[in-house]
Amino acid sequence: MDLPLSNSMRATPYTKRGGLRRVAGLLAALLLAPLIFSVSISSVHAHAAAPDALSQLKEKRDGLAKAGDFSAAAVLAEEVLASAESVRPASDEEIGWALNDLAELQLLLERMPLAETNYLRAQWVADGIGGGKNLMAATALNGLASVRSRQGRYRDALPLYERALALRRELGTPDDVQSAVSMSDLAMIYAHLGRRSEAEMLYQRALRAMEASAGQDHYFLGAIFNGLASVYMDQGRLELAEPLLQRSLALRRKYLGESHPFVAFDYHNLGMLQFRQGNLELAEENFQRAIAIRAHLGDSESANLAASLNGLALVQLQQGDYAGAESLLRRVLEMVEKSLGGAHPEIASILNNLASALEGQGRQVLAEQHYLRAISVAEVALGAGHARVGTYLHNLAHLYRAMGRNTEAARLDRRAEAISAQVL
């Protein structure tokens, strides 16, 4: 297909410093995962010659994918695979790429078990062609890494992304479109793991490679712009993030249309930036735009929709509407648990935000339970020394002070400060 998978959004954690209504350091403004996923651009691969009917199916599939109708595209992708498997003599090239393309769409649709199965099948086919030293294998590896990333298994995704990028370099394609996407994906994992300087440098390299391969006016650039912007936001360099997000939105609206799911990502991410800037009115407007696009596309339960609902809840928290935020966050928590599972690191962010809403209502015991669960989930998923763990520890310390538990609060603050010193 000729459409790169998009980056998804993090369920940004609400951070308190000296008062519940103040936001002072949102460490996870965007998900650089879900995230920039793998790209399998069939049109640039050397497929075996296909019958006219198969070529037509591919064209329809790719047209639907570019239009953002991933569900319909996935149906045709299954037909493409079935057709490729029925051709005699069968072409491993056709079958392998059809598996990669189907898995890519399933990943976009958050059908992780199916995506994983088909990437593994594609890798098996690729291993039978030249011992796995080919672009098909690199694409399947990158796709498997993307499944791990979407599941929040960032440390498991890291070596797979590294292997995929190394294979592309070994094959002599270090700066093409696919390699640029692999670099972006690896940069995303660096950012998730708190390796921000490495993430920034690799995003910059990916951007140069993508502009050299696809041009400076291609919507493929949008995912990289969003990823780099998120690193700048984590670093507090909001003035550098804004033009990147605006440029991504302009490119995607120009080439994909106003109602495309990738445009919804851009509106959401702009909303997160504006929230960080303290412009709650504009932030709310852009979250609502993102939600409206997803409603138009029939999306009522995805993790990406949940992220924008989480954004609205952040606005409500900042405005002091704690009951409204709680109601929205409980819905968000249910959606993300259903879509990504209860151990995903984004669950920790939502639990943290829900704890803040409960604390604002004076429900301190429940708030404590949610903060503790947020810390537990984050420590398992991200590691005990991750910056987001430090955020949740500080928030729980704030609650303990309000409850008169100053000794416990001081202990948590010391842990959080040690994490902060290590991250810096």
Radius of gyration: 22 Å
Strand content: under 5%
* Beta strands, count: 0
Helix content: over 70%
Total DSSP helices: 18
Distance between the termini: 41 Å
Label the overall shape. Answer: globular
Biggest beta sheet attributes? none
Contiguous runs where pLDDT drops below 50 for at least 5 residues: 2-9, 17-49
Alpha-beta classification = mainly alpha
In N-to-C order, the SSE pattern is HHHHHHHHHHHHHHHHHH
pLDDT averaged residue by residue: 87
Top keywords for this entry?
disordered N terminus, mainly alpha, 18 helices, 424 residues
Describe this structure in words.
The chain is mainly alpha-helical. Helix content is 72%, strand content 0%. The chain has 18 helices and no strands. It has helices at residues 52-66, 70-86, 92-108, 112-127, 135-150, 154-170, 177-192, 196-214, 221-234, 238-256, 261-277, 280-296, 303-319, 322-340, 345-360, 364-382, 387-402, 406-423. Helix 5 (135-150) runs antiparallel to helix 6 and helix 12 (280-296) runs antiparallel to helix 13. Residues 2-9 and 17-49 have low confidence and may be disordered.
Topology, pairings included?
Elements: H1 52-66, H2 70-86, H3 92-108, H4 112-127, H5 135-150, H6 154-170, H7 177-192, H8 196-214, H9 221-234, H10 238-256, H11 261-277, H12 280-296, H13 303-319, H14 322-340, H15 345-360, H16 364-382, H17 387-402, H18 406-423
Helix pairs in contact: 1-2, 2-3, 3-4, 3-5, 4-5, 5-6, 5-7, 6-7, 7-8, 7-9, 8-9, 9-10, 10-11, 11-12, 11-13, 12-13, 13-14, 13-15, 14-15, 15-16, 15-17, 16-17, 17-18
What is the structure about, briefly put?
This protein is 72% helix and 0% strand. It is mainly alpha-helical.
